Structures are given as structure tokens and as C-alpha cells.
Amino acid sequence: MDSRPIGVFDSGLGGLTTVKRLTELLPEEDIIYLGDTGRVPYGPRSRETIIKYARQDAAFLAGFDIKAMVIACNTVCSVAYEILKNAYDMPIYEVVSTPAKAAAAATKNGKIGVIGTAATIGSGAYEAALRRVAQTSVFSVPCPLFVPLAENGRTAEDDIAALTIADDYLRGLKESGIDTLILGCTHYPLLRGVISKVVGPGVTLIDSGAETAKLVAEDVFRREMSSGSVSGTIRYFVTDGIEGFSNLAARFLESEVHGKVEQITLE
Q: Residue 166: which CATH number?
């Protein structure tokens, strides 16, 4: 048994889609969530800046004596995962390898699409992960405006702005004949309806955060790290104002927000 909490961080609130799945699979675990809402999105930033922010995010969570850390940010995973993994003596989970395996298992025609931030797509992390597990054709497209759409609640299936932007980004992927699409950003599940409407019902969507949450849950039990509690709690930390947090966070969690929300400064 290990009663220490699990730490999760993302550049904004997209990582709450991962938290949602974690709480479903590990309802007894305490979770500390950090959303760097004051500096979202990370995608357009330089490699050096992303690494700097990632170190600050990880250091903040490590200060709570967490037993494991989930990097619920594909951009950070693509750029700084190895750096963080080597810096801490605890299990650290990224949101690239496991979704790649799930996509390889799901595809029937070997054509897999990947969408993410400019930094994630530019890193080639998903292509490398897919090459390690299967012989597939990979089609990658950056979708930089999806994060602000999600953060601003423009996610309805009939939202004209979201549909127009999605059609512009995804038309080429649809024409390529993919049958599986990795949502390579934890914000993107909020746009699942929009994305599916554009690419069509014949394309299987792989949620990178949800797939990683499954791995974390399996590992917690395998390593005998379960807290043994009856029910867990969630503490939320953000780097921008907390006004309106509950309404927006509820969209990502698909439920009412329970737990304390605090604004902090990262250095």
C-alpha cells in the first residue's frame, strides 16, 4: 500500500481528460493536478522553453511527495520526457507510447493518422513510437487551433468555427484513407464529436490520455502501489486566475468539480 498521491500536469486543462479516466479506474487514489493555464499552449513554444516549463511543472508536483507522475501533455512528452524521467526516482508516464500501441492494434488497413500541436508533430515522437510496434503508414497533421477551441468551450458538434477549422486541418487525412486517428493532445477529446464528424464514422479515434490512464491503473496494481483508501480526493492548481475554473474544468471532467482550486506561481 502507498497512500501518497499521483501527480498529473498539463499545459492547461486538457489533462483533466486523463484525470477523468484515472478517477474512473482508480477511484481510491488521491490526485494532484497542475494546469499551467497562465502559459497555455505549449505547442508553439521553442524546445528550450518547453523543457524549462516542464521542469517547473514536475518540480512543483514532486514537492508533494507523489508516488507517480503523469505527463498529460503530449508536447512535453514529445520534447522533455526523457529529461524528466532521468530527473526523478518514481514512475513517470508519458502519453505517446501507449496510444501508439493501441492505434497499431486498432488499424485494419495500416493507415494511421496523428494530430497534435506543432511541437508534438514536429518532434516525430508518434512516428517513432509506431515504428517500434508495427509496420504502418503514418499521416501527421498539426492542429494548433484545437487547444484554444477546447480551452474556450468551442467544442459542440455543430459549432461552425470548430467544424470549419477541423475540416481545413483534417481534409487531407480523410483523403489519405486512414482508418485510425490518434488524438495526440489531451485537449482533443473535447472535440471528439467535431473530429469524428469531419473524418467520418469509419475512423477509430484513439484518446492518448485515456489509453495512458489504463496503463497507470494497471501499473499501480502491479507495483502494489494502491492507496487502500475508500475514496480519493483531487486538488487542483493553476497558474492563472481561478475565476470560471469550475465551469471550464467540468467540461473536461464531464462532471461537477469537487476539490480545492488554488492559483500558484511557477519559478
A: 3.40.50.1860
